């Protein structure tokens, strides 16, 4: 399989010598997939969802017998890329690969040109992971309590980097900030690679980063991990405590990566795509690659995933108001 990069566009070709037989879902419009599939990633290349998508699309494209084009359309908290999919033909040839920020959109962008709950159908969860509170080692913070104390000593002047307004990393930080009771200045970027560069240089105080983006930098000693956001510690960083262990109740946040299609996509295509995606997730080597990124497997049906997102939307809107989150 060959991979060509050009302006954030990657073509993942279906392998000719693949061990899988191509499958088709039969619909009123004919066999699916009938041609190349485009997967929109609403964050920059190198972000967690971008990395996860490319790992999964390798076997998935071979199984489906079609090329999958992974296209990065970053900006506006993921709403630019998501909007493209919401308006796409509901024929199973345009996918959205998004993160937990999908559930944040109604609160962060109430005037978005699409409705998250109404205009998308969930297909599969590709995995979940914590966000990781990271700082530059030069800052001297040893614990999350050290960071919180420093932030409280500098009211409104402590900065935090995220992958954009309304992103999952933004919401994770706001949950921590609200639970720990400190103010801060949001510094949004187009993706985590750019955000983490600013944290490493010390120009931004901290970030609640996706683990896939920060783990290599933590292992290299360029970032220090202070806490993870999941209720339990992650196997990828077993020595790092959770934010709850650090003493901040209701600060937990689980970051997921998921696949979606336009809401009117025929159900047989959604079901076939779910089945083949689950198969791809268990193809040889895929789980090991995801594990290296700190991604844990998730078993959930499309219907259950849709219901989960609706619950998240409701709870996030409550947090948004309670924490008085403002878009700056």
SSE order and pairing:
Blueprint: E1 3-6, E2 9-12, E3 25-27, E4 30-32, E5 37-41, H1 48-64, E6 68-72, H2 79-86, E7 94-99, H3 101-108, H4 116-119, E8 120-135, H5 144-152, E9 159-162, H6 168-180, E10 185-188, H7 192-201, E11 206-210, H8 211-219, E12 224-228, E13 254-262, H9 267-281, H10 286-292, H11 302-322
Parallel strand pairs: 5-6, 5-7, 9-10, 9-11
Antiparallel strand pairs: 1-2, 2-6, 3-4, 7-13, 8-11, 8-12, 8-13
Helix pairs in contact: 1-9, 3-11, 6-11
Description:
The N terminus is likely disordered. A hairpin with a 2-residue loop joins strand 3 and strand 4. The chain starts with a strand and ends in a 6-residue tail after the last helix. Strands 1, 2, 5, 6, 7, 8, 9, 10, 11, 12 and 13 form an 11-stranded mixed beta sheet that branches. It has 2 domains: 192 residues, 3-Layer(aba) Sandwich (D-Maltodextrin-Binding Protein, domain 2); 124 residues, D-Maltodextrin-Binding Protein, domain 2 (3-Layer(aba) Sandwich). It has 11 helices and 13 strands. It is α/β, with parallel strands linked by helices.
